[in-house]
Amino acid sequence: MVTADRILATFSSLGLRSTAQRGAIADWLSLASTGGRDFSAEEAWRELSAGDRPIGRATVFRALDALESDGLVDRIELADGSRRYRVCGGNEHHHHIVCVACGRVADVRSCLSPQFAGQIASETGFTLERHSIELFGRCDGCQ
Amino acid sequence: MVTADRILATFSSLGLRSTAQRGAIADWLSLASTGGRDFSAEEAWRELSAGDRPIGRATVFRALDALESDGLVDRIELADGSRRYRVCGGNEHHHHIVCVACGRVADVRSCLSPQFAGQIASETGFTLERHSIELFGRCDGCQ
DNA sequence: TTTACTGCAAACATTTTGCAGATGT
DNA sequence: ACATCTGCAAAATGTTTGCAGTAAA
């Protein structure tokens, strides 16, 4: 769970000013984080704008970009090509598993085994630099 | 390497008629397959249309959809969200590694270790159904 | 008072859709 | 003949950009 203050602090550490809009974004993201919720940029913008005081679409996109570059939020590219975000608090390297029934997302710490890179090298001649894994399954509630 | 005939046969096995356009698409894809090349739908359309006889954009998109549903071509969702295709001949489950320097793509047969699913289950409570892995590294020529 | 931020609306890139006419079976 | 395909152009989607005005520092 990531507090609004921490998000605000991240903005500031990126050299970005503290504005009312970023405040609203921080609040909203903190809530999303508490719920373990993932969302699209559009979705975030729509919900933020539904509130008392609307906010520009571009503002939300730009904020999300900034936070993602910092690592505070993760961008998840689903297998169908849709792009989603998730507040992961800049934790160390991890992956995500998406429930095919209810859409819930959980963090996964397990990762490629160390010998995997060696296997790749001998199989393809490539050296491995980065990887992204998207997992799909069923959460405990949906099995 | 996948022949144009095989692609045509795939169309037909999907209950799709054999048309001049699908013929041109089969030829082009077969060539791409020989070169181990990956491409976006737009790219395929542009090159196909550059030839003697232009072809409709939607036609190419629809053909690619059909072939992908059959598994003859793979859709690769890159980490930046861009979507690419690659003729993989309906081979069994595999992944892709993309060279960060030259963009070359290779097939990777290595996969998640068998105990991975168990690890996931104990860690998250999810059962694993599917996964997609995108790997990024450097090919032998670019190291 | 300076510089960054915001909102807007337009641009953008890519994909999908509806439909009338062409074409394969 | 009849159902499917095609091409077109329009709509849709989701994101980015340029710019003039607003607000933080």
Word description of this protein:
The first copy, chain A, has 143 residues and is of the alpha+beta class. Chain A has 2 domains: 1-91, Orthogonal Bundle (Arc Repressor Mutant, subunit A); 92-143, 2-Layer Sandwich (Dna Ligase, domain 1). Helices cover 41% and strands 23% of the residues of chain A. Chain A is built from 5 helices and 6 strands, in the order ααβααββββαβ. Chain A is globular and about 55 Å long. The two termini of chain A are 26 Å apart. The mean pLDDT of chain A is 91. The A-B interface holds A 77-81, 83, 97, 99-100, 106-110, 112-113, 116, 119-120, 123-140, 143 and B 75, 77-81, 83, 97, 99-100, 106-110, 112-113, 116, 119-120, 123-140, 143.
CATH class identity of the largest domain in chain A: Mainly Alpha
CATH superfamily of the largest domain in chain A: Winged helix-like DNA-binding domain superfamily/Winged helix DNA-binding domain
What sequence of helices (H) and strands (E) makes up the elements of chain A?
A: HHEHHEEEEHE
Unreliable sequence segments of chain A: none
Gross morphology of chain A:
globular
Mean pLDDT of chain A: 91
Q: Which structural class should the secondary elements of chain A be placed in?
A: alpha+beta
* Strand portion of chain A: 15-25%
Question: Which architecture of the largest domain in chain A does the CATH hierarchy give at level 2?
Answer: Orthogonal Bundle
C-alpha termini separation of chain A: 26 Å
The helix content of chain A is 40-55%
The radius of gyration over CA of chain A amounts to 17 Å
Subunit arrangement of the protein: homodimer
Number of strand elements of chain A:
6
Output the CATH topology of the largest domain in chain A.
Arc Repressor Mutant, subunit A
Biggest sheet character of chain A: 3 strands, antiparallel
What strand order characterises the main sheet of chain A? Answer: 1-3-2
The overall number of domains of chain A is: 2
Largest interface: A-B, 38 and 39 residues
Tally of separate helices of chain A: 5
